[in-house]
Design goal:
- By secondary structure, the chain is α/β, with parallel strands linked by helices.
- Helices cover about 50% and strands about 15% of the residues.
- It has 8 helices and 10 strands.
- The strands form 2 sheets. Strands 1, 2, 5, 6, 7, 8, 9 and 10 form an 8-stranded mixed beta sheet that branches. The protein has a two-stranded antiparallel ribbon with strand order 3-4.
- Strand 6, helix 3 and strand 7 form a beta-alpha-beta unit.
- Helix 1 runs parallel beside helix 2.
- The longest helix has about 50 residues.
- The radius of gyration is 46 Å and the shape is rod-shaped.
- The two termini are about 85 Å apart.
């Protein structure tokens, strides 16, 4: 008795109209062989399975085809490709999650948008088959393969931006393509970098370094401005002191005879000179203290204005 089993490789996102199909195995008409029933299980990568799955998807939906396959049956793969091309829906988007090799790379060409993930790759090559027979049959098999390959190349040629001669050479050489190379040649449309595992710390560090340099430059400019301000203020105070000294000399004392500060009794005036000198020293200290206080206040005011503007 044949055992009925249900296999589904498509999922619908909750609350959306996106249906996901998966080719996560070799493309094959048959599934694994069941020794209990002595029959093959249904293949979830067969053309028949895709026929049933696509029939359940409405025309208003978006189909996401996820691929991670080494390839497989050309017969099944070409049928899946054409089923996807004929499907009426909003959009078909193919995501290469791992490998899209051989016939799997052909199937992805049916999508409206072909997106390759980071670290993925594509392999294109000529198809091959196993054959047994006499010389005539072997020669005919080779000729048949040439016809099949000529037809198969047209699927690639609809999307790629290289010449057919270039494509033939790549197929003969069994060419692997990185995501960037696939996009450049037209085998894919874009590289999905949204799933980058870590942010670009280099750019952040460069921005922080640039900000630190701007801060250091601004601080250096501020120090130079303060030095220039202090030098100008000091020079102005010195000029003022010189003027005060000149006025003091004019007012201090001469009696018209050239004698200064002499006592009537002919003394040398030592005590009075000492007191005058002490008074002058006290006055100088007071003036210097006042200048320092004013200078500190001015510097503080300038610094506050600088920070406010920042």
């Amino acid at each position: 008795m044949k055992q009925q089993k249900a296999h589904y490789c498509f999922r619908q996102e909750a609350g959306s109209d996106v249906h996901k199909l998966y080719i996560y195995d070799d493309v094959s008409e048959y599934g694994t062989f069941d020794w209990w029933t002595w029959e093959y299980t249904e293949s979830e990568t067969s053309a028949e399975f895709f026929r049933k799955a696509l029939a359940e998807i409405p025309e208003s939906a978006t189909v996401e085809l996820h691929i991670n396959s080494y390839g497989g049956s050309v017969k099944e793969g070409i049928a899946i490709y054409n089923q996807l091309k004929q499907k009426k829906c909003k959009e078909i988007v193919a995501y290469v999650d791992g490998f899209a090799y051989s016939i799997a790379s052909v199937i992805m060409q049916a999508a409206d948008r072909r997106i390759m993930g980071l670290g993925t790759s594509i392999l294109i090559h000529n198809m091959w088959l196993s054959v047994a027979g006499n010389a005539a049959e072997l020669r005919k098999a080779a000729d048949d393969l040439d016809v099949l390959m000529e037809s198969n190349r047209q699927i690639y040629m609809e999307r790629v931006n290289i010449t057919e001669d270039e494509l033939i050479e790549m197929l003969n050489n069994e060419t692997y393509l990185t995501p960037e190379q696939a996009v450049e040649m037209g085998f894919a449309d874009e590289v999905d970098k949204a799933a980058t595992p870590a942010p670009d710390m280099t750019q952040q560090l460069q921005q922080q370094l640039a900000q630190m340099r701007r801060e250091m430059t601004a601080q250096k400019a501020f120090r130079e401005e303060m030095k220039e301000f202090c030098r100008a203020k000091q020079k102005k105070d010195e000029d003022t002191d010189d003027e005060d000294d000149e006025e003091t000399d004019d007012e201090d004392g001469t009696d018209g005879t050239g004698d200064t500060g002499s006592d009537d009794d002919g003394g040398d005036g030592t005590d009075e000179d000492t007191d005058d000198k002490d008074d002058e020293d006290d006055e100088d200290k007071k003036q210097k203290g006042t200048r320092k206080y004013k200078l500190a206040a001015l510097i503080g005011s300038a610094a506050a204005q600088y920070l406010k503007e920042r």
